[in-house]
């Protein structure tokens, strides 16, 4: 369904400039050129604002150390990006690659399981009537307001009690919880999964779990992808929890590893290069996953906005 | 579920606060603190050691190979103030602190008043090791108590003056040997369009090094009470000296460790830097175009003919309270910080400048350094290290003190207030912070 939608969107986009030149085009609300231009300028400024740091990072990562401070920060000098990447990957037996792999495991696994849990929870809150439903939902909503950093220290003390600090689980388990995911899944489920359909599935003899996984999940895909994306990005960027929990370098996610390196730049100047290149490489997975999932994601975000 | 978790969180936070204040009151350090028991363990011992020294693993591997019965596992993290100190405190609360940890000298008193350190005095060979270390570094780890040793000194940051030998020569300006000459030279340098140096608004520990050299003492601990003195005549004199240079636009005030700051050195606009031994690499990496043009001399003195140096930075290896194997931990810490083998490796991998006397004689620290025109610059730092006063004591809330003074310094370099006023605010806030933590302090 969504594949069809993007296909039909593409030609439309190509046609649009032609339409706007023709004042008699049968298009509904028409913007004045002034408003349109203003909007474009605002967008342009913001795009520039967001892209310049990334551009700077790309340029800086492509420079050798001696050229880093001496050449124009926004333009390339001798292009030694690949050489720099080679050095980074070789440094300390490839510990950087290990960090990237760890991040992928924490974020990928955490987001996947977290999404399933949030999806089931949201679906249950939307589709089953039981006493205390609203109370539970409100408590979950309250959870959205509690910043994850505020929970890190209590989590550390709890994990200390069961001797799980400085393990994979100490970062992975807390990552599975997503109050925002539950909220979004509930809103989306109540809007897009018709009760009649669940009724029909029940009549056909499907159990509740089977109904959820074979029927409802399919209708909830946009919301679930959104939850997955949000959760993936949140875990990938999560820094404070690993900082508090982990001591073993081989368990570090890439954020913590780069931060640790950055704090030693005064002692080991070469680390400055590695931090830059490492930062550049560490955003690539996020960009890829956004590009792959953005069409679902757009649908999910606007769910319930027209109603 | 979330509600419950939050409730638990609040409860735990409260409990943690109570525990913290409890610790602080219970352990007012007194001069006759008895050493903790320190007997060897039987059988194989596993130790954990948290440190952020880059490449320390290889050094520890050498130890592990030679000592199959005392195996050390390295744990790591960001530098102390970057989060590792907070982690240590969290772990001490949770009862799972590592056996050994790296702690900078200026953070040791904080761990001491929170009762986080094991007194190693009873451990084999620890008291005798005093003569192996440069005098003042030992003062940093025993807090002036004869029968106490709270950590083994690791590295030091004796200060000297890096200067552009070529520029001073070309412009016929004499290398300043006193601070008065330094101010005169500053005028001459300014006349050529450059700045003699940069005043750092956020490296308060560098400023402390200046005060240290001048003979100031910010903190004292008489066994019962702390005394805070950020506004003594010596400190005020140092602050007024730099304030004058700032007011007359004779020093630049770039934020340190930024590209701007590097560029000022790289382009030859800044001529000197009064910094620590480890700073040699900072210039070399920040100002690559100036290779071969630098040299090192002793810091300018307050009185002609004096021989005093300050210190900036340096850390120790401490054994935490709760370690089950202080005997073995102390043995490892002594090896790590006194054996030529370990010191050579640490100097190579992390540019550590040793606190051990024998370390100052390492071949690597005797050689000429190409960036400094092949001058054997570490000879100067060895002289400086011997001239550092052993009396300077750090306070138990240095992070807060640094932050408060730094806020004031930042304002002062942009023309709002003065350095002395910033130190006054630092004084008031430090006393308030210590009072809030129930640390006994003279008001």
Topology:
The complex is a heterodimer of chains A (307) and B (443).
Chain A (H helix, E strand, L loop, with lengths): L1 H20 L11 H29 L3 H6 L10 H10 L4 H33 L5 H13 L2 H14 L6 H5 L6 H14 L2 H9 L4 H12 L1 H17 L2 H6 L8 H9 L7 H32 L6
Helix pairs in contact in A: 2-15, 4-15, 5-9, 5-12, 6-9, 9-12, 10-11, 12-15, 14-15
Chain B lengths: L1 H25 L18 E6 L5 H11 L3 E6 L8 H11 L5 E5 L3 H6 L21 H8 L9 E2 L5 E6 H6 L8 H13 L12 H11 L4 E3 L4 E3 L4 H15 L11 H8 L5 E5 L2 H8 L7 E4 L17 E5 L6 H13 L1 H11 L26 H10 L11 H16 L5 H18 L7
Parallel strand pairs in B: 1-2, 1-3
Antiparallel strand pairs in B: 3-10, 4-10, 5-8, 5-9, 6-7
Task: Please explain how this structure is put together.
The complex is a heterodimer of chains A (307) and B (443). Chain A is an all-alpha fold and 307 residues long. Chain A contains 15 helices and no strands. Chain A folds into two domains: 31-79, no CATH class; 90-301, MetI-like fold (Orthogonal Bundle). Helices cover 75% and strands 0% of the residues of chain A. Mean pLDDT of chain A is 86; it is low at 1-21. With 443 residues, chain B is α+β, with helices and mostly antiparallel strands. Chain B has two domains: 34-156 and 314-365, D-Maltodextrin-Binding Protein, domain 2 (3-Layer(aba) Sandwich), CATH 3.40.190.10; 159-310 and 391-436, D-Maltodextrin-Binding Protein, domain 2. Chain B contains 16 helices and ten strands. In chain B, helix 2 (56-66) packs antiparallel against helix 13 and helix 15 packs antiparallel against helix 16. The longest helix of chain B has 25 residues, at 2-26. The radius of gyration of chain B is 22 Å and the shape is globular. Residues 1-32 of chain B have low confidence and may be disordered. Chains A and B meet through helix 3, helix 6, helix 7, helix 14 and helix 15 of A and helix 1, helix 3, helix 10 and helix 11 of B.
């Amino acid at each position: 369904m969504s594949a069809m939608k993007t296909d039909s969107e593409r030609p439309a986009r190509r046609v649009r400039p032609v339409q706007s030149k023709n004042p008699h085009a049968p298009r509904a609300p028409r913007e004045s050129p002034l408003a349109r231009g203003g909007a474009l300028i605002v967008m342009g400024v913001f795009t520039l604002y967001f892209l310049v740091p990334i551009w700077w990072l790309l340029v800086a990562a492509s420079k050798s150390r001696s050229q880093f401070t001496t050449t124009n920060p926004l333009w390339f000098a001798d292009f030694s990006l690949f050489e720099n990447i080679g050095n980074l990957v070789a440094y300390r037996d490839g510990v950087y690659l290990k960090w990237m792999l760890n991040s992928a495991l924490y974020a990928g696994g955490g987001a996947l399981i977290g999404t399933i849990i949030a999806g089931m929870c949201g679906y249950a809150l939307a589709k089953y009537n039981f006493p205390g439903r609203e109370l539970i939902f409100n408590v979950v909503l309250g959870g959205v307001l509690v910043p994850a950093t505020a929970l890190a220290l209590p989590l550390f003390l709890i994990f200390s009690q069961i001797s799980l600090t400085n393990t994979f689980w100490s970062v992975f388990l807390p990552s599975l919880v997503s109050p925002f995911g539950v909220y979004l899944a509930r809103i989306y489920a109540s809007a897009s999964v018709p009760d009649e359909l669940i009724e029909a599935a029940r009549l056909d003899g499907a159990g509740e779990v089977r109904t959820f996984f074979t029927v409802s999940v399919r209708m909830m895909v946009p919301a679930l992808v959104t939850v997955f994306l949000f959760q993936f990005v949140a875990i990938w960027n999560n820094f404070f929890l690993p900082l508090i929990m982990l001591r073993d370098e081989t368990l570090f996610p890439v954020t913590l590893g780069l931060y640790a390196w950055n704090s030693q730049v005064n002692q080991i100047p070469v680390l400055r290069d590695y931090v830059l290149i490492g930062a550049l490489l560490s955003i690539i997975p996020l960009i890829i996953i956004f590009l792959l999932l953005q069409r679902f994601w757009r649908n999910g975000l606007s769910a319930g906005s027209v109603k | 579920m979330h509600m419950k978790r939050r409730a638990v969180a609040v409860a735990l936070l409260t409990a943690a606060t109570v525990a913290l204040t409890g610790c602080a009151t219970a352990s007012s350090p007194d001069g006759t603190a008895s050493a903790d028991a320190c007997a060897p363990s039987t059988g194989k011992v596993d130790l954990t050691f948290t440190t952020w020294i880059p490449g320390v693993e290889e050094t520890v591997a050498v130890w592990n190979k030679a000592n199959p019965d005392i195996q050390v596992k390295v744990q790591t993290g960001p530098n102390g103030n970057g989060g590792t100190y907070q982690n240590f405190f969290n772990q001490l609360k949770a009862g799972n602190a590592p056996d050994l940890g790296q702690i900078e000298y200026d953070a040791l008193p904080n761990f001491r008043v929170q009762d986080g350190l094991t007194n190693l005095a009873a451990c084999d060979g620890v008291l005798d090791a005093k003569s192996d270390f440069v005098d003042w570094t030992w003062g940093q780890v025993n807090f002036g108590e004869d029968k106490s040793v709270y950590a083994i000194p690791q590295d030091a940051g004796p200060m000297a003056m890096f200067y552009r030998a070529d520029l001073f020569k070309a412009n016929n300006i004499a290398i300043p040997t006193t601070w008065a000459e330094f101010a005169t030279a500053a005028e001459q340098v300014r006349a050529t369009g450059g700045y003699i140096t940069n005043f750092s608004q956020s490296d308060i520990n560098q400023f402390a090094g200046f005060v240290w050299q001048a003979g100031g003492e910010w903190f004292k601990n008489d066994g019962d009470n702390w005394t805070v003195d950020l506004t003594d005549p010596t400190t005020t004199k140092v602050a007024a000296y730099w304030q004058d240079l700032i007011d007359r636009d004779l020093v630049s005030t770039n934020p340190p460790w930024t590209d701007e700051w590097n560029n000022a050195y790289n382009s030859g606009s800044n001529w000197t830097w009064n910094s620590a031994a480890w700073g040699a690499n900072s210039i070399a990496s920040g100002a690559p175009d100036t290779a071969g043009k630098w040299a090192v001399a002793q810091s300018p003195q307050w009185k002609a003919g004096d021989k005093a140096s300050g210190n900036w930075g340096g850390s120790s290896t401490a054994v935490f309270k709760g370690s089950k194997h202080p005997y073995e931990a102390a043995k490892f810490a002594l090896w790590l910080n006194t054996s030529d083998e370990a010191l050579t490796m640490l100097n190579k991998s992390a540019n550590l400048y040793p606190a051990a006397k024998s370390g100052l004689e390492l071949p690597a620290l005797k050689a000429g350094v190409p960036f400094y025109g092949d001058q054997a610059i570490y000879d100067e730092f060895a002289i400086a290290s011997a001239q550092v006063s052993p009396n300077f004591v750090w306070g138990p809330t240095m992070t807060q003190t640094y932050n408060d003074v730094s806020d004031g310094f930042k304002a002062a370099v942009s023309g709002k207030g003065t350095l002395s006023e910033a130190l006054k605010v630092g004084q008031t806030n430090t006393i308030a912070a210590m009072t809030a933590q129930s640390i006994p302090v003279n008001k």
